Amino acid sequence: MATYVAHEESEFAPPAEVGEPELYHPKTFIGKYIWSQDAKVIAIQYAVTAIAIGLVALVFSWLMRLQLGFPGRVGFITPSTYLQMVSMHGMIMVIYLLTALFLGGFGNYLIPLMVGARDMVFPYVNMVSYWMYLLAVLLLVASFFVPGGASGAGWTLYPPQAILDGTPGSYLGIILLLVSLAVFVIGFTMGGLNYVVTVLQARTRGMTMMRLPLTVWGIFMATILALLAFPALFVSAIMMALDLTLGTSFFMPALVSKGQQVSHSGGNPLLFQHLFWFFGHPEVYIVALPAFGIVSDLISTHARKNIFGYRMMVWAILIIGGLSFVVWAHHMFVSGMNPYFGFFFATTTLIIAVPTAIKVYNWVLTLWRGNIHLTVPMLFAIAFIFTFVNGGLTGLFLGNVVVDMPLSDTMFVVAHFHMVMGIAPVLVVFGAIYHWYPKITGRMLDDTLGKIHFWITFIGTYAIFYPMHYLGFMGIPRRYYAIGGTNFIPDSAHLLNAWISIAAFVVGAVQMVFLYNLVASYFRGKPAGDNPWNATTLEWQTAHTPPRHGNFGKELPIVYRWAYDYGVPGLKTDFIPQNVPPAEVPAEAWVKAAQPAGA
Amino acid sequence: MTIGLVFLSVLMAVIVWWLFRQTIDVQPWQAQVTGPALGADAPTPPPAKMALWVFLVVATSLFVLFVSAYAMRLGLADWSPLPRPRLLMLNTALLVAASLAMQWTVHAARRADRDRVRKGLGASGLLTLGFLAGQLIVWRQLNEAGYFVASSAAASFFYLLTAVHGLHVLGGLVAWVRASARAWRGSDPARTRLSMELCATYWHYLLAVWVGLYAVLVSNDLGLAICSSTPL
Hints:
The complex is a heterodimer. Chain A is an all-alpha fold. Chain A has a domain at 315-528: Cytochrome c oxidase-like, subunit I domain (Cytochrome C Oxidase, Chain A), CATH 1.20.210.10. Helices cover 60% and strands 1% of the residues of chain A. Chain A has 15 helices and 2 strands. Chain A has helices at residues 9-12, 29-33, 39-69, 79-115, 123-142, 172-201, 214-245, 269-302, 310-323, 339-367, 376-399, 401-407, 411-441, 447-474, 491-524; strands at 256-257, 260-261. The longest helix of chain A has 37 residues, at 79-115. Chain B is built from 8 helices and no strands. The radius of gyration of chain B is 21 Å and the shape is flat. Chain B has 2 domains: 1-43, no CATH class; 48-226, Cytochrome c oxidase, subunit III, four-helix bundle (Four Helix Bundle (Hemerythrin (Met), subunit A)). In chain B, helix 3 (47-74) packs parallel to helix 7 (189-218), helix 4 runs antiparallel to helix 5 and helix 7 packs across helix 8. Chain B is mainly alpha-helical. The chains are: A mainly alpha, B mainly alpha. Chains A and B meet through helix 6, helix 7, helix 8 and helix 9 of A and helix 1, helix 2, helix 3 and helix 6 of B.
C-alpha cells in the first residue's frame, strides 16, 4: 500500500478512544499528599520509599565489603549477620528498590504524562498499590528485628536450607519475608493493571501506540512481564510458607538435619528452583526494559537526533520480553539437570543477545553524527551503554553450560549480574532523575555536583566490579564469610579484595553528594522553566511546572507526530514537540523545497 | 512446565499479532495517517473490562504455575493418589449453575429488567455460596478419612489448589456484594449492566479454572500428560 500523506488535521490525530475520566479532587493536605490518588504524588511516594530502603541495602553492602576486604576487623559482623546482610542486600536491591522505583516510581510519574492522560485509569487502586508496597517494605524491615533476625538464605531462598534450623532467620525471619513478598506481589499487581490499561486505553487523541515514547514502551512491556512472572514468586512463597508452618512437603525432601530426621518427606527442592527462576529471570528484564526505554529517550533528546530504528526498538523490547520467559533454567545448570535441557536453555539464552545487540547498535547509531550534548543525563546514558555491554558479554560466558560450570557460585557471577542488572539500571535511574527532576520540582539539579557524582560513580563501579571478575576466575566463591588460608588463593587476591572494598566505600559515599544535591536543589536550584532540555514529549509541554493535578490545562494535548522529531531534515529549528500541529510549523522554518505536503 | 510454555506461547502469539497490527504499514516518523484500519475499529471496551481481562491473564498465570508445580510433583515415584470425593461432582454442578445464572442476569440487565437482575444475582450468589460450602464439606470428609494437609503430597496439593480457587471465588463474592448493592439501590442501568457483565466474565472464568483443576485433580493421567518433561 502506498504511503498516504495526511493533509487534514483530523487525519493526523484521530479521535481519542476513551472519554475523559472523572478526577478525584483532594480537599485536605492529607488527601493531597498522604492518601493521594494523583499518580504524580504516588510516584514520589514510591520513589522516596524505594530509595530509603535502598540506602539500607547500600549500608549492608558497605558492611559486607568491610568484612570481605578486612576480614575479622569488625567485631559485630558474625557469619550469621554476614549471610543476613548478603540476603537482604540482594532482595532489597532487586525487588524493593529497582522494581518499585522503575515501575512504581517512573511508571506512575511518566505514563500518564507521556501518553497525555489526566491520571491513571484507576486512581484509587493506584493509591492502594502504594500502601501495599509500603506495608511490604515495613514487613521486610520488621523481619530484621524478630528473634533469629532476617533470613540469611541468600536472595534466592533455596530450600531446604532456607527453612532448616541453622540458617539465620529460618523461622520468623523468613515467614515475614515470604509474607512481605506476597504483599508486594499483590500491591504490584494493582499498580501493574493500572499501567497496562492506562497505556492501552487512556492515550490522548492522536497518540497511537507507534507514537509512544520508548520510555512508555519499556515500562509497558516490563509491567506485562512482571504481571506474568510475579505469580511464580507468589506461588513459591506460599508453598514454602506452608512447608514451614503446616509441615507440608512441597519442597522439603526427607533429610537429616543436625542429627534429627525432619518430619518432611518426598518434596522436591528443584521444583522451588524452577518456580523461583521462572520469576527470577524475567525479573532481570523487568528491571532492564524500563532502563532500555528511558535510555533511548535520554540519548535521542540529548543528542538532538531521532532514535534510530524506532519500530525495531519496539520489536526488540517485545522479543526480549518473550525470550526472557524461556531461559530461566540457565540459573540451574549446576543443579544436575538433563544435559539436553541445559543445551536448550543455553541456546535460548544466547539468542537473547540478538535483540539486545540490535538495541545497542541502535543507541550507538542514534549517537552517530548527532549533536551530542554531554549533559549529566547524557553522561549517565552513555555510561549505561558501556556498562550494559560489559555485563552482557560476561552473560554470554555464563550462558554456556561448560563455561558456567566452573564459574558458577564464584565472584565472577557476582561481577556479571552487578554490571548488567545492578550498575547499568542504576546508572539509568540516575540519568532519569537528572533528566526529569526539573519537571518534578521546577528546578535544575546542580551540574557540578552532578558531574562529580557521575564520574566517581562510573569509574568507581568499574574499580569495584572489574577486579571481581579476576577473583571469580581464581575460584573465589561468593557468599563466603571468609576465605581463610586456602592454598589456591594467592595473597594478591586479598589485596584485591581490600581494594574493591575501598572503592565500594568511595562509591557509596559519593551517593550522599547526590542526595544532598536532590535536597539542596529543591530549595536553591536554578529555576528550570517548562522545557529545559527542549524535548518533544508531552510531559514537557504541560501548562505548569511541576504539572498540577490533572496534568494538563483545560484541554488535553492533541498529538500530531512521533516523539522523536529532533533535527528534522530541512527544518531550521531543532525540534518539534509532539503536540504542535503541522500548520503551526511555519513555512519560513523550513529550508526551501524541503517543506512536506500539508505543512 | 509444558502447560506453562503453552500458556506463554498463546499469550506471546496474541501480543505479537496485536503489535504486528500496530506496526504494519505505520511509519511513525512520517506525518501520516495512523493506519486506515484503526479508525474503523470496533469501539474499545471500557477500562474496567480491559482491566478485568488483564487481571484474568495474571490469575491464569498463577493457576498455570500451581498446576505445573502439581504436575511436576505428580511425576515422582512416591506419588499416592487421594480417594476422589463424589461430592465434587455436585459442587461442579453448582458452579456451572451459578455461571449460567450470571449469564441470565446479564441478559436481564441488557433489557434493563431490574427485577430479573435481582433474582439472577441472588440465585448465582446462593449457588456460589453452595459451592464453597460443598468444598468445605469435601475438606471435612477428607479430614475424617485421615487425609490431612501434610499427610501426603496428593493431599497437600488437593488442599492447596482448592484453597486458592476458593479464595478466588471469595474475591468474586466481594465483587458480587458490590454489584448487588448497586442493583438494589437501582443505579443507572448502564452501570448495572457493566458490573453484571464483569461479574459474568469473572464467573465463567471461575468455572473454567475449576473444571481444569477438577480434571487434573481426579485424573492423574491428565496431570502426567501435562508434565511430559518429568526429568527436568
